[in-house]
Design a protein that fits this description.
315 residues; 5-stranded mixed beta sheet; 14 helices; D-Maltodextrin-Binding Protein, domain 2; single chain; globular; 2 domains; alpha/beta
Length: 315
């Protein structure tokens, strides 16, 4: 009888402890997060490979997409809870009724670190910025790369009406056409911009020091509201990965080469990017991109900063 009474008390004690602590055997929070294989997304792959998500009690599946369009479709259909991307696309999705908010800026350029460059073809006769602008610059129309060209050339006193844009959305094709002289110039991301330079292309302007090339981490709005602690833990893991990259660049080169698809010729020499701590997307940059989209009538609805950005998720 005493043994049975002790057993009942013991079971009740275990239930009480589990209730207070949340249960030691509780399964980690699981969700999928999408990205494309670009340099700025490196902390996501490092956090996954080094177990930083698991340290935060998370089971995060990083889903790799070949294109931003595939990633956007997966997000809008509910296949992923959030994604890494440029600052523009979440605005367009939000304007079209998708429940999405940018919650953190994960990368931006600095005075000594570029991510995009406008390059003149090795076969271009005149490689001055104004001449190149008139001749034609290949980019993806109505994308963040078009925005960058307009802003970067404006800084060189070249007005929009003097810039001819050539719509070539495929970046590999853009690179091939640039090097073969089929187009006079193109905007390319790193590491392809550096690869083009090794083959004779000349950078006429890049985004170093302008702070207009932010990439962001965005989530479904309902997921943010329902899982604030999970998102904070996710961001803590990403911050730890960024710090790890900065302190141990040589150790992450293999991850970068594989996950970010660094060209074979640059796998040993391309500098490992340095990553800042996560910050809330800057209102000045967010609204500048928004106004540009409104001016092009890509976005037709009135939105304010709080419609696009969720604050309070970065520790």
């Amino acid at each position: 009888m005493k043994l049975a009474k002790f057993s009942v008390i013991f079971v009740l004690f275990i239930i009480l402890v589990s209730t207070v602590t949340g249960g030691a055997a509780e399964k980690p929070q699981s969700f999928k997060f999408g990205t494309i294989p670009v340099l700025q997304s490196l902390p996501l792959f490092v956090a996954s490979e080094k177990g930083f998500f698991k340290e935060q009690g998370l089971n995060v599946e990083i889903v790799l997409f070949n294109s931003a369009m595939e990633k956007d479709i997966a997000f809008t259909s509910g296949q992923i809870a959030g994604y890494f991307g440029d600052i523009m696309t979440p605005m367009v999705l939000a304007a079209n009724g998708t429940k999405i908010r940018m919650a953190a800026t994960s990368f931006n350029t600095t005075a000594d670190q570029r991510m995009f460059a406008v390059l003149a073809s090795p076969k271009a006769k005149d490689q001055e910025p104004a001449a190149i602008a008139r001749s034609g610059i290949a980019t993806g129309s109505n994308t963040i790369t078009e925005y960058l060209i307009i802003r970067l050339l404006a800084a060189k006193k070249i007005p929009r009406e003097s810039i001819k844009l050539v719509d070539i959305k495929s970046i590999p094709i853009r690179l091939q056409m640039l090097l073969s002289g089929q187009i006079p110039a193109a905007l390319l991301p790193e590491p392809l911009a550096t690869l083009a330079e090794t083959k004779g292309a000349k950078a006429i302007v890049d985004d170093r020091g302008y702070g207009i090339s932010a990439t962001v981490l965005a989530f479904n709005t309902d997921f943010l509201i329902s899982n604030p602690a999970v998102v904070k833990s996710f961001f803590a893991a990403v911050d730890k990965a960024s710090d790890y990259i900065n302190k141990h660049p040589d150790e992450v080169r293999g991850i970068m080469n594989k996950a970010c698809k660094v060209p074979e010729a640059l796998r040993r020499s391309f500098p490992i990017p340095r990553f800042p701590k996560l910050t809330v997307p800057a209102e000045t940059q967010v609204m500048d991109v928004y106004r540009w989209l409104r001016g092009k009538k890509i976005i037709k609805s009135d939105l304010v900063y709080k419609d696009l950005v969720a604050d309070g998720y970065i520790r």
